[in-house]
Design goal:
The chain is an alpha/beta fold and 482 residues long. Helices cover 36% and strands 22% of the residues. The chain has helices spanning 14-21, 64-69, 94-112, 126-141, 156-161, 182-190, 205-208, 211-219, 236-239, 299-317, 323-335, 362-379, 397-410, 421-433, 447-453, 475-481; strands at 11-13, 24-26, 33-35, 37-38, 49-51, 74-78, 88-91, 117-121, 144-146, 170-174, 194-197, 228-232, 247-252, 259-266, 272-278, 290-295, 344-348, 351-356, 383-388, 415-419, 440-444, 463-467. α4 (126-141) packs across α10, α12 runs parallel beside α13 (397-410) and α13 crosses α14 (421-433). The model has no long low-confidence stretch (mean pLDDT 95).
């Protein structure tokens, strides 16, 4: 289910809207004011600005009459599609205009007070790292705006920014992409103090192209950063694309990382104890650069996300951390819980269920498989993997699914269920190349068939991983077990 767009009370005069967007006003007074910005007439409140967006299945211009009936103060429309039913501002591109308005609102807030802002992107781990960074920011600054759910595209980012209010003292904005140029556009809207790109890997290859193309796209987030770039030590494609004008803070497991995951110990209660060692220059003189905390998040990738979040908080703070600040960040990270349907652990009918059903691409598949395998090994449990197709990979799809199936089989699960045509074909190719003795392999056309196939095959104590792209509806498998 998509994240609902939150309401806002962002105010604009019609003249300001026209100035910011390069638009022309028809049927309205430049001094008239709108309160609230919306793209959906169902959520429209009286006095709002309605932005008519044209999508793949719906055109907002078809709802101008409805917007007028519900009391919209004005509408932002494509030139030539103005309506006599309400004041309109005609622009060349309503989606670009939406971003320009968000940029103006952010600039207004920044002119009134300091607002440390970070933008977070990458192929995998964005949402979890965003939540961790927001938790760390709240520990440092107080009320912090964070992107709700997955509202990380050219609509979601502006609509998030419109919710900035007087209470907020920091902002953590997630930026995603599935087509070239999207990240650069979002970067121009946010102009963050710090930009963090977690990783580059195969993702949305239909729209983004090769790995080099993806690196160019994701690194676009650095293009408008004001002060800091944050990058993993394991990402040379990103490091080489950071503008020389920016200060760089690195995170990772390498010895030279500014925020280093020095150790990770899995505890009997399922939590992990991690040690994060900071470059001494990042903490106040004579303060210990070591932070040791317990976290309830699964696997090494989540521990590295904590390191990334700490690096992000340091970049936002713009000063060396004190012992009290470092302890407050540690407490925030220790209290963090997994994001729903993203490596979320629960106990169902005596089984440990690892629900990573929200989405999937090759890097997140590798992380999920390794995490579930580690959990099963540490608990001496059978490992069950139910893996759905990874969508939007274009010509790289077959090879990516082959790699995923091979990686899954290498962990010797008791049962591997391949869901969807791509995963099923990869399983068939793997079975033809090598024996998979000891691994029961099944193929299902969709998640509903997968739910039927696993009935009677699971037992108490099993570790069960469920993962696939959003379009594969793998959450139905989770629901069938619950």
């Amino acid at each position: 289910m998509a994240t609902p767009i939150p309401p806002n009370r962002c105010a604009f005069a019609l003249g300001e809207i026209a100035e910011v967007t390069g638009g022309s006003i028809t049927g309205g007074d430049r001094g008239a004011t709108t309160i609230g910005v919306t793209t959906d007439t169902r959520a429209l409140e009286r006095g709002s600005l309605f932005v008519a967006l044209q999508g793949a299945t719906a055109d907002g211009h078809d709802y101008l009459a409805r917007a007028a009936e519900r009391g919209a103060a004005a509408a932002l429309v494509a030139r030539g599609r103005e309506s006599a039913m309400l004041p309109c501002i005609g622009v060349d591109d309503t989606l670009s205009a939406l971003g320009s308005l968000a940029h103006r609102h952010l600039a207004r807030v920044r002119s009134a007070r300091d607002l440390p802002t970070i933008a977070i992107g990458g192929a995998a781990g964005k949402t979890t790292t965003k939540e961790l960074t927001a938790a760390a920011a709240r520990a440092l600054f107080g009320p912090t705006l964070a992107t709700p759910g997955n509202l990380n595209n050219r609509i979601g980012v502006p609509m998030t920014i419109f919710t900035l209010s007087d209470e907020h003292r920091a902002a953590v904005i997630e930026c995603g992409t599935n087509q070239r140029g999207e990240i650069a556009h979002l970067a121009r809207i946010v102009e963050p103090d710090a930009a963090m790109v977690l990783n580059v890997d195969i993702e949305h290859s239909e729209g983004l192209g090769t790995l080099e193309d993806i690196a160019d796209e994701e690194a676009g987030l650095y293009s408008t950063a004001r002060r800091f770039a944050i990058v993993s030590t394991e990402q040379p494609l990103l490091k080489s694309r950071i503008p020389a004008r920016l200060n760089t803070i690195t995170f990772g497991a390498a010895a030279d990382a500014d925020v280093r995951l020095a150790s990770r110990t899995i505890l009997e209660n399922g939590r992990s104890r991690i040690a994060l060692k900071l470059n001494p220059l990042l903490v106040k003189p004579e303060e210990s650069p070591l932070l040791v905390i317990e976290i309830g998040l699964l696997g090494e990738a989540m521990a590295l996300n904590c390191a990334a979040a700490l690096a992000g908080a340091i970049a936002m703070s713009r000063e060396q951390l004190s012992r009290e600040q470092l302890r407050a960040i540690g407490d925030a990270l220790s209290s963090a819980r997994s994001v729903a349907r993203r490596l979320a652990l629960s106990r169902v009918r005596g089984m440990l269920l690892v629900d990573d059903s929200y989405n999937a691409q090759p890097p997140s598949m590798r992380v999920a498989i390794a995490t579930a395998a580690e959990l099963a090994s540490n608990s001496g449990a059978r490992l069950i993997m139910i893996l759905g197709d990874m969508l939007e990979l274009g010509p790289l799809s077959a090879a990516s699914h082959d790699e995923t199936v091979a990686g899954a089989i290498a962990h010797r699960p008791a049962l591997l269920v391949a869901v969807g045509p791509e995963m099923g074909a990869a399983l068939q190719r793997a079975s033809a190349r090598t024996t998979v003795a000891g691994v029961e392999c099944l193929a299902a056309s969709d998640s509903d068939e997968a739910s039927r196939l696993i009935r009677g095959k699971l037992r108490a104590g099993d570790v069960v991983l469920i993962k696939g792209s959003l379009g594969m509806a793998m959450d139905r498998v989770v629901a069938s077990l619950q």
